[in-house]
Amino acid sequence: MGGLFEDVEDEIYREKRVLKEGHQPEKILERDAEIEEYKHALTDALFGRSPDNIFLFGKAGVGKTAVTNYVLSELQAEAQRRDTADPIHVTKVNCNNQSVYSTVRHLVNSLRPSDASSFPKKGPSTADAFEELYARMDELGGTHLFVLDEIDHLSDPDPLLYEFPRARANGHIDRAKVGLIGISNNYTFRNTLSSKVKSTLMEHEISFSTYDASELQTILSDRAQRAFIDGIDVETAISACAAFAAKDDGSARQAIDLLREAADVAQKNGSTMVTADHVETVREEVNRGQLRDKIDDQTLHAQLVLEAVARQQRADSKPVRTTRVQDRYEAVANAWGYDHLTSLKSIQNHLDDLHMLGFLIRSDENKGQQGGRSYRWEVDMTVETLIEAREEIEQQTPSID
DNA sequence: GATCCACAGGAAATAGTGGCTT
DNA sequence: AAGCCACTATTTCCTGTGGATC
Predict the structure, then answer these.
(1) Contact A151, A201 (CB under 8 A)
(2) A323: Cβ under 7 Å from strand B?
(3) Which nucleotides in chain B have some atom under 7 angstroms from a protein Cβ?
């Protein structure tokens, strides 16, 4: 009598994890120019000078994080090799949904010895947190590189971005040196910063372009070589994934997701060949999943506003003005059984946010006395897919606690 | 050129949450 | 327990806009 899983073998994978989210490749392909620029910006750190601040822009899945990890670990390795150099401390924070205070707190905790208690979540003022951070930095000495990932999610980042580059000049720190590395996938974020911050902080702007099909092909081939056992034919699937992802959003993440899911389907069918057909069958599901995750990250009312735009746009088959969004939003909220927000301004706030995040396209309209000035909104994606994604989200979260 | 529409956009107030210090 | 403090989301209140119309 065999066990349930007895006949299951991993027929096609050698190392599936290289196709999974969060895998850090040991070599970075197709980003040579960016790496070179990065390296150049950081060389000061090796010679005990204050490093330049760096800002990285580029859409999700174009290698910002992977390149950062790679370059910084190389930098640290090199600093160790030359023991004349100051120690280099790298600290990473994800600013997603965080405030300046909690970001600073996170940095403080990272610099504290591991046995020390962590800095209070609430209570001290932001200035207290900064003070503590400066003390820690000085204590450790050397050069501190702070990586602020998703920095555009920070509400009111100006104080943070203004404080740091000046910490030394203002005498807050004495021994230590600081460099900031900001990462953002939001190009408009750049314009929301005050000009004084821009000039000091963006000493180096490295912009990551999206991958084209041939670049994606290179990356996928490399991953596939390690992910699959010999004798598995993935060539046609790779071309299909590369072509599709290049046309869609140029992200390596998407291309890799596609390949992985397609390979899973092939495996299930007992095939040793992953084909373009397999890619085709998973394409819609992968897309929908990615969109659903992005939407699910938004707050409830932001989601409802987005859904309202989509539904009204479907009904009118044209971009929707703000007040019509509001009406539809109230209906949508009621339909799902939620209380709705009452002010037009709230809707405007959410629409603005959604626009900044790339969910919505905005256009101006001004009909003078016959209608005044207003914005028109439309979703930057397929209306149907969006509505379906929203319905799925509602179904998987029947209650909110 | 003044006026007017229908909002946009910014500042500040308010409400609610949660946690610290004393 | 009282008094702070910070954060978020929302609302209130205000001034500003740009083009069509008078």
Answers:
(1) no
(2) yes
(3) 3-11, 18-21
